[in-house]
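Hi Y.,

Following your request, here is the sequence exactly as I used it, all 150 residues.
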Amino acid sequence: MTQDDSTKKDDFNLQNFLPYLLNRAAEESSLEFQQVYKDRYGMLRTEWRVLFHLGNYGEMTAKEIGERAHLHKTKISRAVHRLETRRFLVRSRSEADGRVENLTLTSYGQSVYRELIGIAEQYDSNLVAQFSVDEVALLRKMLRQLAHMD
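Below is the corresponding structure, written out as C-alpha cells. Let me know if you'd prefer a different format.
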C-alpha cells in the first residue's frame, strides 16, 4: 500500500533520499546473485565476500580482508570459520608474525570462486543491459566515488 502526496505527514520524500535509494537498489540488484551462492554453496553474504577477496587478491589475512571489504572483524572471523569448516579455505601461521594467520583458498575454494565469477559476470551483464554504455560508465563512476573507491 502506498501513500500519495496528499496523505503524507511532511515534505520529506523518502523515495528520493539517496541513502534509501542506494540501499534499495543494492538489495534489489543483488537478490538473484545472492540466491546462487546461497543455494549452491550455502554461503552467506560475508562468506562470498571473503571468498571473492581471496580469489581476487590471493593470500590475505582476515584483517586485510576486513580493511578492503569494510567488514567488522567478528563478521570476518565467523565467515572464515564457516569457509574453513566447509573446506573453501585454509589458514596458516605467518612466518614473520606467529600471531597472524594467512588465509588461502583451497583448490575446491578456487573452483567455486571461478564458477561464481562466471555467474557474477553474466549477472552483471544482465543488470547493465538496462542502460546505455555511457549510463553504465557514469553509474559505476558515481558509485565508486560515493564508496570512496576512486
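Strands lie at 60-61, 89-93, 101-105.

Thanks again,
Q.
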